[in-house]
Amino acid sequence: QVQLVESGGGLVQAGGSLRLSCAASGRTFSSDAMGWFRRAPGKEREFVATIRRSGSTYYTDSVKGRFTISRDNAKNTVYLHMNSLKPEDTAVYYCAALKSTIYRGSYRYTQGSEYDYWGQGTQVTVSS
Fold first, then answer.
1. Cβ distance 49 to 35 under 8 Å?
2. How far apart (Å, rounded) are the C-alpha atoms in residues 28 and 75?
3. Are 3 and 26 a contacting pair, CB within 8 Å?
4. CA 20 to 30 Å from 16, out of 57, 66, 81, 85?
């Protein structure tokens, strides 16, 4: 059974920082990619960042230079370090993982439909 459990969300002022964690159980850390997505109130779920098993990372343009995705294989945990937070970053943040372990080169996995496992989400609220 694969489980993803997010933590680290909360309320922060604009310009502040948070670190989200996604603790994975099962075989998820052999998957080719893990990602972070978010859903803001009244909006569609959107891609935030991906980290490949190779270590390559990809970000949506709105978070480049402010967010960093990383992974600790020893702890089976993926992190999202968020700096210089803005009110528009307010959303529920979800961790996701692929079932596939097949390496796909430089593929970025930016679509939620490509992921097989999801966490329950953690709320991030940025006040102005």
1. yes
2. 12
3. yes
4. 57
Q: 70 near 61, Cβ under 8 Å?
A: no
CA–CA distance, 96 with 77 (Å, rounded to integer): 12
Under the banding of pLDDT at 50, 70 and 90, the label for residue 28 is low
Q: Indicate the pairing of strand 10-13 with strand 122-127.
A: parallel
pLDDT of residue 74: 86
Q: How many CA atoms lie within 13 A of 118 on its CB side?
A: 15
Q: To which residue do tokens 């102005």 refer? A: 128
Does residue 100 have a pLDDT over 70?
A: yes
Q: Which residue has the tokens 């680290």?
A: 8
95, two tokens: 């961790």
CB count in 10 Å sphere of residue 54: 12
What is the end-to-end Cα distance of the chain in Å, rounded?
A: 40
Max Cα-Cα span within the chain: 43
Quote the CA–CA distance of 62 and 14 in Å, as a whole number.
Answer: 15
